[in-house]
Structures are given as C-alpha cells and as structure tokens.
Specification:
The protein has helices spanning about 1-10, 20-35, 45, 55-65, 95-100, 120-130. The chain is an all-alpha fold. The protein has 2 domains: about 1-50, no CATH class; about 50-135, no CATH class.
Amino acid sequence: MKRFLLVSVLVLCSSRGFSSAVSLVDNAVTRAYTQKMTIHFDATKFQPDNTIRRDEAAKFFVNFAKGVGQTTYTVNANECQFSDLHEARDDLRAVVVESCRLGIFRGSDGRFYPRGYLTNAEAVAVLMRIIDGRQSEN
C-alpha cells in the first residue's frame, strides 16, 4: 500500500518534475499524520516504498473513512471476532475490529491476517469500498 501511495502521487504529478513529486509525498505524509492516519510525521519515517501490514492499513483506512464521513457500522460485532487478533499490534487491535464493523476489511474464515501485507490491488479495492460502498459483482 505504501508503494501504491508513492506511485499514485508520482503518476499524478509526473508533469511537475521529480522535486515537486517528492514535495507532494512529504505533504501527503504530513497530512496523513495530522489526520492520525499514520504515526509517522515525515516521508523518511513513513518509508513510502515499504509494504504495509493489514493491521496498519486498517488504521490508515478507518481514519480515512472517518475523514470522508463514512462512520456507519455495516457489520455486526459478532462477525468481527477474529481468531488471530492477538497477532495484531496491541495499539491496533481495536481499529482492526472497527475496520471490520465499518465494512472496510472482513477477513476470511474467522481470521484477519494482521501480519499479512496489503497488496496494491487490495488497497485500491478498499479505497473504492470506502468511496462507493460494496458493489454487486454481477
């Protein structure tokens, strides 16, 4: 996901040159920090070229969803009990459950896989789910 963020910013800013793109990445990370989407306050600490764990992504996307007004729980709390929740970082366990309750992440077979890494495709799907809701696949 972090690579997705970097690539997206670079693509959007390709006409502005590399130094402008780097500045935009710094600004994006600063804004994400201000909105509590990340604990990192600059691009060096954020490490946009690294992968992101699913529990970290849950925090990022829950705070993004709240920022765009998506705060309605769509999933019952009973459906968000994960057998591997103990594998999530201590400070992210509650947000993992909240990401499920908001319908952002659902997990599979009663597991969330918090240590797994989010792919770019999954990041796009989650972003679309927040913006457009769950769409029928028919």
